[in-house]
Amino acid sequence: MAEAVLLIGTRKGLWVGRSDDSRRQWTLEGPQFSMQGVYSVAADTRGEVPRLFAGGTSEHWGPGVFHSDDLGRSWDEPPEGSIRFPADTGTSLERVWQIQPGPAFEPEVVYAGAEPSSLWRSADRGVTFELVRGLWDHPHRPKWEPGFGGQAIHTVIPHPDDRNRVTVAMSTGGVYRTADGGDSWAASNSGIKAYFRPDPWPEFGQCVHKVAADAGRPDRLYAQNHHGVYRSDDGGGSWQSIADGLPSDFGFPVVSHPTEPDTLYVFPLVADGNRIPVDARFRVYRSTDAGKSWDALSAGLPSGPVYAPVLRDAMCADNMPGAAAGVYVGTRDGCVYASTDSGESWNEVARHLPDVLSLRAAVV
Amino acid sequence: MPVVVRLPTVLRSFAGGAEQVEVADAGTVGAVFAALEQQYPALHHRITDDQGGLRRHVNVYLGDDNVRDLDDLATPVSHGDELLVLPAVSGG
């Protein structure tokens, strides 16, 4: 029988939720990685044995990427660490913001996005990583500025069919993409506003918070910006606003439905200067027409006032085959809610955890 | 006599559970940690960053002195000295 796992990365360690494939009753185990902020988690279901990842940062002992081949019961990392900046960079790894398995046809490839803004590629399924020099050496890099949380690559989207195409997003800097396997990169922010700059439409420098690829069309991308929600239909070549119908265009996560084209989820916050849910109501917003219209989802979510925001990687969907998608959302006040019907209704999975930084779910 | 490096509890698992490790023939604090890289790479990785510097919130004491107040990694050590590694009181 299939098993479902829910990785909950928090400010103070990792919790692992376990369920059968109904995903209705979860038991939580944790915390692991005590006193580490777990900023990235991932579930790689491509191989015969699923491999889970956790990117933790100890304020004292530094960052690490850990992997588990027993569904989170034990974790490993190489003695020297998985990710180390080469000596010639004069740089040290601060934090791993994203761990992203590569395309299905390259089962040993795993990417990582890190702070300071850098992309890393693993050819041994996430045990050791190599710096992607083409992006590190990009002439724009000295002009990428840190956002409030640091200057990092937080999104990595490998093209599902083309090993040479990868899209990344960073705060700040914006969206960049390669079509030659990482040797060269082009800024891809046309149409995304940077209201906080003298020229609000720069080539790069946008504060893109998260990007997701549509389930049906890999060249259809969605971006939650630092004010602004956008869609691209040409792989990031140009972007158009899809914020009409949302109560606010500010927020952090954007998640695509894993199987249904044109379906995506966001969590609007009031504004840059007031980062709490709009009207203090805890509502996930879903579009089923690629952003033309939006529905507020709230059945089973807290009805009282909620002031806790949802961070960029604290929303995800699972990969349940042959059933409605599971959608998961975690809050900065340590609650996690899950839906097994693509967001129509929700149940509480956890409460009173530390701030939820990252969530990923998989049925294995 | 070698230089002794005393470890906090949280780091002992990276040294086979030992409360302290010994390094021979090291003339500076930096050389002590460079030698650790060979003997205990995981321990070395937790104390120093990618470029070999002390991690920001790790303190190393030689006697009562934080080596940052001396000559940092260039601080001389001699046989019989003890280095004490401690996490700084920081973080949230």
Q: What is the class of chain A in the CATH system? A: Mainly Beta
Distance between the termini of chain B: 40 Å
The CATH homologous superfamily of chain A is called YVTN repeat-like/Quinoprotein amine dehydrogenase
CATH topology of chain B: Ubiquitin-like (UB roll)
Largest sheet of chain A, described in full? 5 strands, antiparallel
Low-confidence stretches of chain A: none
- Count the beta strands of chain B: 5
User: Please, what is the average pLDDT of chain B?
Assistant: 93
Judging by the overall fold, what is the CATH architecture of chain B? Roll
Helix run count of chain A: 1
Overall helicity of chain A:
under 10%
The structural domain count of chain B equals: 1
Order of helices and strands of chain B: EEHHEEE
Order of helices and strands of chain A: EEEEEEEEEEHEEEEEEEEEEEEEEEEEE
Helix content of chain B: 10-25%
Mean pLDDT of chain A, to the nearest integer, reads 96
CATH H-level superfamily title of chain B: Beta-grasp domain
Strand order of the largest sheet of chain B: 2-1-5-3-4
> So what's the overall shape of chain B?
globular
Q: In total, how many domains does the architecture of chain A comprise? A: 1
Specify the oligomeric state.
heterodimer
